[in-house]
Write a structure and sequence with these properties.
Layout lengths: L4 E5 L6 E5 L2 E3 L2 E8 L14 E7 L28 H4 L5 E4 L12 H20 L3 E7 L8 E3 L10 H19 L3 E7 L1 E3 L8 H11 L3 E3 L6 E6 H14 L4 E5 L4 E3 H12 L4 E3 L13 E3 L2 H10 L1
Parallel strand pairs: 6-7, 7-9, 8-16, 9-13, 10-12, 11-15
Antiparallel strand pairs: 1-2, 3-4, 4-5, 12-14
């Protein structure tokens, strides 16, 4: 008996009824409406990999649905990826790797105890199966406590488990590339904001407080300088790096424009017409990042210019 759907006979020749089997938890449920693997015996003339129906219990669980006719969604656990993952993904030419759990707990040991070996094992299996180009999302935390404008030529000095694990994955992939050549772009992301970001990030927290009618928003002193980029713009840069299909190495994905967190927050408040005020100095400054750092975008600009 299938765990995905049941195929039931009817009194009419050639007509079958597909009985769906919802699979769910507290977040919602998923129903498989069509699956070529399950329906091979029916000799369906139309090749459709899957059709799924989902219901999410809370807003934001699924941000958008892929509407492109040539898009398909393949789901599996990267920590326990199937040996034929490359085949299941359709033998892609390029992979944009964004997967990483446990954020924003940057100090968790799980980043190098669990996440690092799992992600390397997954990427190595794809390379050994024939993947030619990988774009991996790195992090500005690989630079550690270095201040000012940070270029790709700076030596990595991560000072938290997350930054360490990301930089270690980069080093592992460089060694793998020497043994089995492929093209690698290591995209060091700075600070992103926009649709789909974690609810624990600054903008979603500020929005919720304003919508509740809070008079004050508690935060640090806000004088730290950071490099912020809208997530949609960062996504376009990642796609450009993927389409370049070059052995790019490390590249900062950043704006190159330092802005204080306080000024950024004040801009969001003004832009949205909120009446909430910032309660500056309520929290101490984070101890895992310097007071002032931002990315040097020259290499990115050069690559994007070549792509256009």
């Amino acid at each position: 008996m299938s765990t995905r759907l049941d195929i039931l006979d009817t009194p009419f020749s050639g007509l079958k009824v597909l009985q769906r089997k919802p699979i769910g938890d507290s977040r919602g449920y998923l129903e498989r409406l069509f699956c070529s693997e399950e329906l091979q015996a029916l000799d369906s003339y139309k090749h459709i990999a899957q059709i799924n129906h989902t219901l999410t219990a809370s807003r934001g669980t699924v941000v958008k649905t892929l509407g492109h006719s040539r898009c398909s969604i393949v789901q599996f656990d990267l920590h326990n990826a199937p040996p034929n993952a490359f085949e299941l993904m359709g033998r892609p030419d390029v992979l944009i790797h964004l997967a990483w759990s446990g954020l924003p707990n940057y100090k968790s040991l799980h980043h190098f105890e669990q996440e690092l070996p799992a992600q390397y094992r997954f990427l190595k299996s794809l390379v050994e199966s024939g993947l030619q180009t990988i774009v991996v999302a790195g992090t500005c935390f690989e630079y550690g406590m270095q201040s000012g404008s940070l270029s790709e030529g700076f030596t990595a000095h991560p000072n938290n488990p997350y930054g360490f694990a990301k930089d270690a994955l980069r080093c592992q992939l460089e060694y793998l590339k020497a043994a089995r050549p492929f093209q690698l772009a290591w995209a060091r992301l700075f600070y992103l904001y926009g649709e789909g970001q974690s609810e624990s990030s600054l903008l979603p927290q500020l929005r919720r407080a304003a919508e509740r009618g809070d008079q004050l928003f508690n935060m640090s002193g806000g004088e730290q300088l950071r490099d912020y980029l809208p997530v949609a713009e960062a996504a376009r840069h990642l796609v450009s790096l993927a389409l370049a299909e070059k052995d790019i190495g490390v590249v900062n994905v950043c704006s190159g424009i330092p802005i204080s967190v306080r000024k950024l927050m004040e801009g969001w408040i003004k832009e949205n017409g909120w009446s909430i005020r910032l309660n500056l100095g309520y929290y101490p400054y984070p101890d895992y990042e310097p007071m002032a750092f931002w990315g040097d975008p020259q290499k990115l600009s050069s690559l994007i210019g070549e792509a256009t």
